[in-house]
Amino acid sequence: MHPVDIQITYDFICPWCWIGYRNLKTAIGRMSTEVAPAISYVPYELNPAMPLEGADRKAYRTAKFGSWARSQAMDVEVAMMGRRAGLDFNYDLITVTPNTRLAHQLMAFAQQTGGAAMVEALFDAIFAAYFSRGEHIGLIDVLVPLAVSAGFDAQAVQDHLSGTDGEAQVEVAQAKAQREGGRSVPTIRIGNAVIAGAQPPSIMGKALQAGVAEAI
């Protein structure tokens, strides 16, 4: 197996980030005997000025896209693409568009303190909590149980999210992503290849093959 560095630039309110991630995991699974992925997760807040309590999703999306009907049509398209990737999007359960800063702080903490499997489980769990169950992932009381389900210590997570140390880490990581040319999510860097958007597993697979060739 050959190590391949993978960097995922994402935001937890971006459905295409979850779909792109799942497509990546599918591609990795198809090459499980060849690729030893080393995945890092880079935050990119789509709504950095979002109030900490979040915003009413219907009002927010109506203002953003001009009408609630247009927003719903977009949600239908996303849900269809999600099903193809094996994901459940239940937009009827989502009432709040959250501020994602705390979720990003949690991911930074996870990458510093947990193993790769724990970090991946948490990443997937936060997306599922929001898009499948409509949970408010901008709240500490929601994020702590998600972290515990991935194997992290509840008190350690509570203490980290209750403080301010993690904010600077998120800001530094976002600034670095922007300096490197990141302007949208998802952006997935596989070895030397940069993939924009939720590309299918076949595209991810070609990049992984190239990454393996680079590692040889």
TrEMBL record:
Entries under InterPro entries matching the protein: DSBA-like_thioredoxin_dom, Thioredoxin-like_sf
Pfam families referenced in this protein's UniProt entry, alphabetically: DSBA
GO molecular function: isomerase activity; oxidoreductase activity
Keywords tagged on the record: Isomerase
Residue stretches making up the DSBA-like thioredoxin domain: 6-209
Transmembrane parts of this sequence: none
UniProt keyword Isomerase, yes or no: yes
CDD domains, per database record: DsbA_FrnE (cd03024)
Source superkingdom: Bacteria
Protein name (Swiss-Prot/TrEMBL): 2-hydroxychromene-2-carboxylate isomerase/DsbA-like thioredoxin domain
